[in-house]
Amino acid sequence: MRILCVSDVVEKFFFESQEADKINPDILVSCGDLPLDYLEFLVTKYNVPLLYVHGNHDLYGRGVTGDFDGIPFLNQLSKSKFDFGYQFDYRGSFGGVNVDCKILNVKGINFVGFDGSYKYNNGPHQFTEEEMRRKVRSVDFRLTLRKLLFGKSVDVVITHAPPFGIHDGKDLPHRGFKVFLDFMKKYKPKYLLHGHVHIYDKRESRITIYEGVKVVNCYGHYVIDL
């Protein structure tokens, strides 16, 4: 299976390069913080399923509520006619499946996903360590049962935030989750795919091996042959 992973930034590459036409993925994975029209374009371009998680800046599929930490611009945006996520619910229209706290089998490959980033200003899709731990526990029984019945539980984990200490930042908004480390130790997936942390230097490492799991920063795009 060839997986095209995208996250965090709209790339002209997919609109302008003939090399993009040669990728021929079997499935698209979005690790978050991407506009809906971009994801819809990719689904249309490649005509394959899309699995996604929400990033901390994704507002589609729900109304925008609450106080954005006293930031006037964001509070105004939440009521603006330009915020399409506020006016419309696109969940059923753009061809994607949100895998947050879900286990999906696609062509024999098991996927599970977890939305969001570390909580830093009470915005949407932000969680404390304990809140994320509860999300992970919500799939624990089903994954354990799958492992007992079929010998494996999950092949690919899709997250927005990275694991703690792997590709994450020292600031609170970009802190990784410790529970993802525990998850990888317990279930041994082949990959954990994340976004959230931008890569500005091509010399930065995209892939780190942890407990035999390939942790991949999918900022921009990355292709995996599984």
CATH topology, what is it called?
A: Purple Acid Phosphatase, chain A, domain 2
Look at the structure and give the CATH class: Alpha Beta
Considering DSSP H and I runs of 4 or more, what fraction of the residues is helical? 25-40%
Distance between the termini: 5 Å
Query: Mean pLDDT, nearest integer?
Result: 86
Please identify the structural class as seen in this structure.
alpha/beta
Number of helices: 8
Beta-strand percentage range? 15-25%
Per DSSP E runs of 2 or more residues, the count of β-strands stands at 13
- Computed Rg: 17 Å
Low-confidence stretches: 61-92
Largest sheet: 6 strands, mixed
What is the approximate shape?
globular
Proper CATH architecture:
4-Layer Sandwich
User: Numbering strands along the chain, what is their spatial order in the largest sheet?
Assistant: 5-6-9-10-12-11
Q: What is the number of domains? A: 1
Question: Can you offer a commentary on this structure?
Answer:
The protein is of the alpha/beta class and 226 residues long. It has one domain: Metallo-dependent phosphatases (Purple Acid Phosphatase, chain A, domain 2). It has 8 helices and 13 strands. It has helices at residues 13-16, 18-21, 36-46, 72-77, 84-87, 129-137, 140-150, 178-187; strands at 2-7, 27-30, 50-52, 96-98, 103-106, 109-114, 117-118, 126-127, 156-159, 191-194, 207-210, 213-217, 220-225. The strands form 3 sheets. A 6-stranded mixed β-sheet has the order 5-6-9-10-12-11. The chain has a 5-stranded mixed β-sheet with strand order 4-3-2-1-13, with helices on one face. The chain starts with a strand and ends with a strand. Residues 61-92 have low confidence and may be disordered.
